[in-house]
Amino acid sequence: MATTYKVHIALALLLAALSTLIVGLTLLPGSPLLPRATTLVVLGLTFALFGPAALRAMSAARSVGPGKLLRMAPSRLVVTAGVLVGGAVVCLAVGGLPSGGQPTKEDGVYYLANHADLRKVTREVYEESIKAEMRLFVTWFTVLLAYAAVLVACAYRAAAPEPVRHTPALAPPAPLPAAPGFLCDAVGGCEWCGQLKSATSLPSCPRWVGDSAAS
User: Fold this and answer.
1) Cα separation, 212 vs 50, whole angstroms
2) pTM attached to this predicted model
3) What is the pLDDT of residues 70-106, one digit of tens each?
4) CA dist 174 to 85, 170, 189, Å?
């Protein structure tokens, strides 16, 4: 399940980056480098990714709430999405919006169609209008794709189980060393005699035994 979320995010970011590149290419002089159908292709891919992202976000919002869901967005992903959207918007501002109508071509003659009004234009104006049209729509698609990546990341974090925190077990208290003359149950070095012994091999402290024999 986690893999599908990550693939969804990666595809949305990849297509958003390609969309930003397409918008940037419209600023180059001359004829459009990409066919006019590119806008329709990006449109289909955008809604193929944004639709499931919206459904995932709505499903997650039912459990955590819309406000908390959006606050779960990873900061690095938000920055990446913002850079892509910002780049497309800058290109749109530099290149400008389409104006004068929709570019059309009939019998080798170029027009700008504004409702029923057809205005004859040169080929250069026609091509610039196509690029401006592509620039506007693909910028909007970039915004949707970047937002889709953020929504999927938020839904993934909301669906992830809470990490289990294990409390370390407390070690049992170490046995106190026996006083001279008493049974010693310490295993290891005795504080009194410094010898290694166990409760079965040396039940009493040898130091006390030696002191008793000397007296």
Assistant:
1) 90
2) 0.70
3) 888 899 999 999 999 999 999 999 998 888 788 888 8
4) 63, 12, 13
